[in-house]
Amino acid sequence: MSLLVIDWSSVGVKTAQFILSFSILVTLHELGHFITARWFKCRVEKFYLFFNPWFSLWKKKKGETEYGIGWVPFGGYVKISGMVDESMDKEQMKLPPQPWEFRSKPAWQRLIIMIGGVVVNVLLAIVIFIGITWVWGEEYLPAKNMKYGVYTDSLARSIGIQDGDHILGVDNRPLDNFATLESEILLKEAKSIQVERNGQTVNIAVPGDFAKKLSKNKQMSGMVFPRFPAIVDSVSRDAVFSKGQLQKGDKLLSINGRTFEYYNEFNQIKQGYKDSIVSINVLRGIDTATIRARVDSKGKLGFFTKSPYELLGVVTKNYSLMQSIPVGFNRCWEMLDRYVTAIKQMFTGKVDPKDSLGSVISIGNTFPSKWDWEKFWTLTGIFSIILAFMNILPIPALDGGHALFTLIEMITGRKPSDKFMEYAQMVGMILLMGLMAYALGLDFWRLFK
């Protein structure tokens, strides 16, 4: 029987970041619809952050529009007079069209109103990536800096990558940023990986079904990781020592006489000593010392190692504001290209949807457990471009579905009936709710698995 342990402080930080990020995205998306609707003199009855079935957390009417905050944190909406939307206001549609209604406006104006939210999300993503590049630059771990090579999991070993290998490239393209290895394999459908082993270059073939396995594996961890020595950075106040004490800079050499060279080996060995007192040999300066300490029930000794990024050396590229503009544009389009490729792989069967789909739980879990503004804005930028892409898909109930019907009207000169639009909206909402329920079910299955 397994026990699900939840760190509620971590959950709280992740939830706060998720709510703030999506509040920004949804508010600005709906603002795109709101501004264009008012531009063409349409009446906007409601502007809501989050949905408000039965009641609202807050609302205030100003002019013709009711502004409010709902209690169901799954998006938001603007209710434009004379438009078939998620409100399904059939009574209004039975009345004769009024000049201020959406349905009374020319097709080209309705099309602009429909894509207004998507345009704002694209612009927001571009601005965010430009801002991130300008403020924080680009920080990454060069593959060439990994002097100890990598350590692997079973998936990497299954295709022939070994502990200590130095990753050189993918499909004979040199790998600069180590963190992009798995996305290179997944999104560019790599056929080979080049590694250096014992001074020789080895070409490792990537099987055709590897992308699907890697996608599933990424739900848990990854396939290769930086290898580095176990050097103490700081010690927890809760650590229990019975002889001596670990100190900053100590390099761990052995546990109970079992020697190791790298942190991953140390981490594996200490799992066999849970709830035990162990003897640890460390190198301190040019001398050695012996420490006795308790490994707790979770297999932890109560200290933090120096990160591989600190030990191996990250590279930071800084940009001026003008230099950040093209870099920010490129980062935005790269994110969009990666997402579109991932969607394509799901539809072509190269990646199993159940290993890639996720609900708000998966989305919220992508945020770090400690507040980090750089990561927050990076994720917000990514989700903004994803939101734009998802909304422009030609699916009824989404902006893209409404835009498609409007384009057909502009080409054929025939406007779909209100009844047809009502049925299309219902079908689209059922499809979307079904997909959301499926994704939520997958997340619960992963949590309790």
Question: What would your notes on this structure say?
Answer:
- By secondary structure, the chain is of the alpha+beta class.
- The protein has 3 domains: 15-134 and 380-448, no CATH class; 143-226, Pdz3 Domain (Roll), CATH 2.30.42; 232-305, Roll (Pdz3 Domain).
- The chain is 45% helix and 21% strand.
- The chain has a 5-stranded antiparallel β-sheet, with helices on one face.
- Strand 16 and strand 17 (287-295) form a beta hairpin.
- It is elongated.
- It is found in: Membrane.
How would you describe this structure in keywords?
449 residues, alpha+beta, Pdz3 Domain, 21% strand, 19 strands, metal-binding, transmembrane helix, 14 helices, 4-stranded mixed sheet, transmembrane, elongated, single chain, 5-stranded antiparallel sheet
> Overall 3D geometry?
elongated
Class by alpha and beta content: alpha+beta
> Can you give the helix content as a percent range?
40-55%
Nearest-integer average pLDDT:
86
Side by side, the strands of the main sheet go 13-17-16-14-15
- Can you count the beta strands? 19
Strand fraction equals: 15-25%
Tally of individual domains? 3
Largest sheet: 5 strands, antiparallel
Q: In a nutshell, what does this entry contain?
A:
This is Zinc metalloprotease. The chain has 449 residues and is α+β, with helices and mostly antiparallel strands.
